[in-house]
Amino acid sequence: MALRLPSSEPERSMRSRMPVAASTHLYLNHAELVEVQMARTPAGTPRLRIQRRESSIFDYRIEDFEVVDYTPQAAISGPVAV
């Protein structure tokens, strides 16, 4: 979204960017759940549609965003570590 602001760099394809998880941790009781998630084949090609352009990131409202072509898969439930 920041790439769409007037003072930012020109838009780039999001497909060329890799997601980064700087501080990822997994509990041992979630290992099997992660394997289930990683074995799934993604469905659809979800996109985030921004309905209007604002001059500041702080001027956006939730109504300004729409997720299109999202195909959710079944939930993977697991225990919560306390």
How many helices? 1
Q: Taking all residues together, what is the mean pLDDT?
A: 79
Overall strand count: 2
Report the sheet with the most strands, covering strand number, pairing sense and barrel closure: 2 strands, antiparallel
Terminal Cα span: 35 Å
Cα gyration radius (Å): 17 Å
SS-based structural class?
alpha+beta
What portion of residues is helical?
10-25%
Give the strand order, joined by hyphens, for the main sheet.
1-2
What is the H/E string? HEE
Shape: elongated
Low-pLDDT stretches are: none
Strand-residue fraction?
15-25%
Topology:
Elements: H1 31-39, E1 44-50, E2 65-70
Antiparallel strand pairs: 1-2
What does this structure look like?
The protein has 82 residues and is of the alpha+beta class. It has a domain at 1-12 and 44-74. The chain is 11% helix and 16% strand. The chain is built from 1 helix and 2 strands, in the order αββ. Strands 1-2 form a two-stranded antiparallel sheet. The protein is elongated, with a radius of gyration of 17 Å.
The gist of it:
With about 80 residues, the chain is an alpha+beta fold.
Summarize this structure as a short list of keywords or feature phrases.
two-stranded antiparallel ribbon; 2 strands
